[in-house]
Write a structure and sequence with these properties.
The complex is a heterotrimer of chains A (345), B (495) and C (185).
Chain A: H1 2-14, H2 32-47, H3 66-69, E1 78-81, E2 86-88, H4 89-95, E3 98-103, H5 111-125, E4 133-138, H6 145-155, E5 163-167, H7 170-180, E6 185-187, E7 192-194, E8 198-203, E9 206-212, H8 218-228, E10 235-237, E11 247-250, E12 255-258, H9 260-280
Parallel strand pairs in A: 3-4, 4-5
Antiparallel strand pairs in A: 1-2, 1-5, 3-8, 6-7, 8-9, 11-12
Helix pairs in contact in A: 5-8
Chain B: H1 18-53, H2 62-92, H3 100-123, H4 146-177, H5 180-183, H6 186-189, H7 199-229, H8 236-270, H9 278-294, H10 307-336, H11 345-367, H12 370-376, H13 381-410, H14 416-442, H15 458-494
Chain C: H1 2-27, H2 36-61, E1 76-83, E2 86-90, H3 97-104, E3 109-111, E4 116-123, E5 128-133, E6 139-145, E7 149-156, E8 161-167, E9 179-184
The chains are: A alpha+beta (345), B mainly alpha (495), C alpha+beta (185).
């Protein structure tokens, strides 16, 4: 193990394709003493006297929070892809949005299941290639491009141009992690990195969504893809049990379903129609005298009296009696006084 | 109608006996006088509010402003609603038999509701504004006690139950004489003109059917408040939808019933008929549908509403102006144009009421544009437009109706000089007061502010100018009350 | 200055309506029979003109709603919580009452000039109205702060200065005192 780790280190240093940007890694080859010191340090680190692997980020172990990272500009770092190319991150996100996740190849824990879950969610949601691409980076300084190529192969996406695997310098990885709230911590007893599982959505260079969790729910990824396609939600409900919403979001299907609230909104109109129907048809036709037109002659409560006749007076058969100021009652005297309606109860 | 069919056969039954007619008239006058008493009281509350906003009462706590706001707004909404209902009830008595008992129950129920409202606002400092938006009644910050909230909801329940019964009763009365399709004028749509349906029957049917829906929504809102009190978490967006659905409908049907009264009364002053025909029927049937969905314009700033709902709301609100403008307002103008119009106080007020409705409608359509609403929502533009609808619209119409009835039943003539002065004071004071609202709204002054902070300090100046105009308006109101009140009381004793 | 434009449109149209009413009222001095056919044809013309005006209005304005556009990508997100009676405005999410209290007396959030800012607005108690007032006192943007929902309001700030936030939904006795502030530099 020591041999392979050391060889990894030396191989990285000698590899002309790798551009070292971090000064503390730059050990001039001719200085044997330095190399010896380096080996001693490494032995001690392996023995546990010094922290061997770097850690970065929040030591509290809190998962990254989308709210704290949203719309932050992602640093334009250099990626060494598994295929051997060297490319800037901006070149990748320029053409299409990116789903970025950070893993390491020797992970015995969450990384593989996480990537598999991401892969199945991506194939379910659709849009790979047309709406977005996936970038998987290793945050482990020991991972090489070949390692990433093997990881791609194990997932079965080695030849898929929309799945990009790669590595970057530890400095760049740290810059990227800082933007996204990603952290990783070397756990000595298990010889593993402890880290969260995150999918960061990058659109036009900015973080737009983050999905945190070892399993990538299909519904969540579908939401992300919808947003990338341009469907935007101007408002969202906070989680919590609330009775009678109009629409309820079902995470498993990713769809909005009607809830009781819609029924309550329709109810007033429905009840009004029902009440109207009840009132207007008590089992039969309206009473025969309903077809009496222009019944205004029975009551002349709308006649102005300015010493003139009612403007419609020419329609009446008989003259209406003039207003008696004292009584104030105007009754059509032409009607039969015998035929009266029953008294109001 | 042809003259020869008017001679009624001797066995034709009359709708009302003389005694019943007398009772109906007395009750209409009681309603009228009650409205005339409530008007200056509630208007004075508004006067107090504008004075408060003018910083005339620096030592009075702001809680008083919000309590008075709640009483003034709910009181006015209620007063003009019952005024419209009483007026329409009376005018419909020519064609149908609305129940007098229901009218009486409503009278006492409304009075009880008003008393309870006064108790919880002036007594308990309940200050949520008239549409009591959930969950504000439950978050008083110690200003109003739980008994005030409970009293408020009891008052609403009493008023709601009474008014729903009245609405259903008027529908029942119409149903006794007209089938549903006749009452909605559907036969006019296919070209038939028999049976003849007076416009007021058509308009009342449309308004009252919609009114039932509004009241059902209010019941649901109150029930959900109750559920919340029992610990069930209710969706605030649903409550907002239901609350504005109810409120929007209530104030709209008050306006439409008032317009119906103009359809019925103005022809007698103009000497020309105003009858239902195909165009009138189409207009009001369209309005029935559009009113139900226009309420979305109250929720434009709730981004949680689906976008299609907001667009639909703007479209419905825009198109609601078509039946109003092309049929009712144009019809009113055509009725009066070059006619032998008798310009009395009543007819002038009816005519001006329609004009106010038009002006308020223009402001409303402008505000119902989402892009404009983004800058006008909950500024003083909103009270500007609905005060135009109410104060210079339906209030003038109802005052005109009360004056008409008072004059008709008392026989007392009006004094033209007084009438002209009354109208001038009302119009000058009213539109002046409104202009300050519009101007303030255009200058971003928010509504429902007890006092104006320095960012919108211009609001205080506008409130002071409005105070001057309200003084003029109140003089006009008092003059009207004096003259018309006298006539109504005289008519009452004569009935 | 959309408010003043709307006001002038209102003044023009309402003024025109009032003039028509005055004209009709004055016409009753010379009473005569009216030509119903002419009246109906005038009404038809009015109907078409009104329809055209309304459709024009709809066409001009329906595309310019204040709801965030899907293609915009904001430069910054600001979190806003409304609670009786102050607005908590912060760069970081506000998740509980303590954080809210802290933001109400913290230094104002600084926003870069020309940036597109997304405000995520919610409330911890009742409905409030998040009303953004420019340094010269104009209401430039608003959205409702509703409990249980987060509304996303996007505004591009082109004027530097101190922006005040006033509450635009009656929320109790302190409604007129409720405010927030942020700065654009």
């Amino acid at each position: 193990m020591y041999q392979s780790l050391f060889s990894v280190l030396t191989r990285r240093r000698d590899d002309p394709n790798v551009g070292w940007t971090c000064p503390w890694r730059r050990v001039p080859p001719p200085f044997r003493l330095a190399r010896l010191a380096w080996s001693v340090w490494f032995l001690l680190a392996f023995a546990g006297a010094l922290p061997a692997q770097e850690s970065f980020g929040a030591s509290s172990g809190q998962p990254p929070n989308e709210d704290r990272c949203i719309y932050k500009q992602v640093p334009d770092i250099e990626i060494q892809t598994a295929g051997g190319a060297e490319v800037h991150l901006s070149a990748i996100w320029q053409s299409k949005p990116l789903l970025l996740s950070m893993v390491f190849t020797r992970c015995a824990g969450v990384c593989s299941p996480f990537l598999r879950s991401l892969q199945s969610a991506v194939s379910e949601a659709g849009g790979l290639g047309s709406d977005f691409r996936v970038l998987v980076l290793s945050f482990d300084p020991k991972d090489t491009q070949a390692d990433m190529q093997m990881m791609a192969d194990s997932l079965g996406v080695k030849s898929d141009p929309n799945w990009i695997f790669g590595v970057a310098s530890p400095c760049d990885i740290r810059r990227l992690a800082a933007t996204t709230g990603f952290w990783f911590r070397w756990d000595q007893p298990s010889q593993q990195y402890d880290h969260p599982a995150v999918v960061v959505t990058i659109d036009r260079g900015k973080v737009v969504r983050m999905l945190v969790g070892a399993t990538v729910p299909q519904a969540s990824l579908r939401e992300v893809v919808q947003e990338l396609r341009g469907k935007f939600v101007a408002s969202y409900a906070l989680p919590g049990k609330v009775a009678f919403r109009c629409f309820e979001y079902d995470p498993s299907s990713g769809r909005y379903s009607l809830d009781w609230g819609v029924l309550l909104m329709i109810l007033p109109g429905m009840l009004a129609m029902f009440a109207t129907a009840c009132v207007f048809s008590p089992g039969g036709q309206p009473t025969p005298d309903a077809v009496m037109p222009l019944n205004g002659l029975v009551l002349s409560n709308s006649a102005p009296h300015f010493g003139e006749r009612h403007p419609l007076a020419f329609l009446t058969a008989k003259q209406e009696s003039p207003l008696r100021p004292k009584s104030g009652m105007r009754i059509d005297s032409s009607a039969d006084p015998v035929a009266k309606f029953p008294k109001e109860r | 109608m042809q003259a020869n069919s008017i001679a009624l056969p001797m066995t034709e039954p009359r709708l009302w006996t003389e005694a019943e007619m007398a009772k109906l008239r007395r009750w209409t006058l009681i309603w009228g006088v009650t409205v005339l008493i409530l008007l200056p009281i509630l208007a004075s509350l508004g006067y107090f509010m504008r004075m408060f906003q003018s910083s005339f009462f620096p030592t009075v706590r702001a809680e008083w402003f919000y309590a008075v706001l709640t009483l003034h707004s709910l009181g006015m909404v209620g007063t003009w609603y019952v005024g419209s209902m009483a007026g329409v009830s009376y005018l419909l008595s020519k064609y149908t038999r609305p129940s007098l008992a229901v009218s009486k129950i409503n009278y006492w129920g409304t009075l009880l509701g008003v008393v309870l409202l006064v108790a919880c606002t002036l007594g308990g400092l309940f200050g949520t504004g008239w549409y009591f938006l959930y969950p504000l009644p439950l978050y008083s910050q110690g200003v109003w006690a739980p008994w005030a909230t409970l009293t408020f909801f009891i008052a609403l329940a009493i008023l709601g139950v009474c008014w729903t019964i009245w609405t259903l009763d008027l529908l029942r009365a119409i149903a006794k004489r007209y089938s549903l399709s006749a009452a909605l004028g559907l036969h006019y749509l296919v070209g038939k003109s028999e049976p003849e349906v007076p416009p007021i029957v058509l308009i009342s049917t449309v308004s009252l059917v919609v009114g039932v829906a509004g009241f059902v929504a209010a019941v649901i809102v109150i029930a959900l408040f109750g559920a919340r009190a029992l610990g069930v978490n209710v969706d605030p967006l649903l409550m907002k939808n239901l609350t504005f659905f109810f409120g929007h409908i209530l104030v709209n049907i008050t306006m439409y019933l008032g317009v119906g009264m103009v359809y019925e009364l103005l022809p007698t002053y103009a000497g020309r008929p105003w009858k239902t025909n195909r165009v009138v029927a189409i207009a009001w049937d369209c309005a029935l549908f559009l009113i139900l969905f226009a309420y979305f314009h109250h929720l434009y700033m709730d981004f949680a509403q689906p976008k299609w709902v907001q667009i639909f709301g703007q479209i419905c609100s825009y198109f609601l102006s078509v039946p109003a403008g092309v049929v009712s307002i144009f019809g009113c103008l055509a009725l009066v144009y070059a006619s032998k119009m008798k310009w009395t106080l009543a007819s002038t007020l009816l005519f001006l009421g329609i004009m106010g409705w038009g002006v308020g409608g223009i402001a409303a359509v402008i505000d119902s544009t989402v892009e404009v609403n983004f800058h006008f929502h909950n500024t003083l533009w909103v009270p500007a437009h609905f005060h135009t609808y109410y104060l210079m619209g339906v209030v003038l119409i109802i005052l005109g109706f009360i004056d008409h009835v008072g004059k008709e039943l008392s026989g007392l003539q009006e004094r033209p000089a007084f009438s002209k002065l009354t109208v001038a004071l009302l119009v000058l004071g009213g539109y002046g007061f409104l202009s300050m609202f519009y101007w303030a709204g255009a200058h971003s002054v928010p509504r429902r502010y007890a006092i104006y902070p320095h960012e919108v300090a211009q609001g205080t100046l506008y409130a002071r100018i409005a105070f001057g105009f309200i003084t003029v308006l109140l003089c006009g109101i008092l003059l009207f009350l004096w003259e018309t009140g006298k006539r109504c009381i005289k008519a009452f004793s004569a009935c | 200055m959309i408010q003043m434009h709307a006001f002038y449109v209102f003044l023009a149209v309402a003024g025109f309506l009032v003039l028509i009413f005055i004209y009709v009222a004055l016409s009753t001095r010379r009473a005569r029979e009216i030509n119903y056919h002419a009246a109906y044809s005038l009404r038809k013309k009015f109907f078409f003109v009104l329809l055209v005006v309304l459709l024009f209005g709809l066409g001009m304005t329906l595309g310019k709603t204040p709801y965030p556009k899907a293609n915009d990508l904001p430069d910054k997100v600001v979190f806003v919580v409304g609670k009786q009676f102050a607005f908590g405005i912060s760069d970081a999410p506000i998740t509980n009452d303590q954080e809210y209290e802290a933001t109400t007396y913290a230094a104002p959030v600084q926003l870069p000039l020309g940036s597109l800012v997304e405000f995520r607005v919610t409330s911890f108690d009742v409905n409030h109205g998040f009303g953004v007032y420019s340094p010269d006192g104009r209401l430039i943007a608003q959205t409702q702060a509703m409990p249980g929902y987060v509304n996303r309001l996007r505004v591009r700030f082109t004027e530097p200065g101190k922006y005040n936030v006033l509450c635009l939904e009656l929320c109790g006795m302190g409604h007129h005192r409720m405010r927030g502030v942020f700065e654009v530099k």
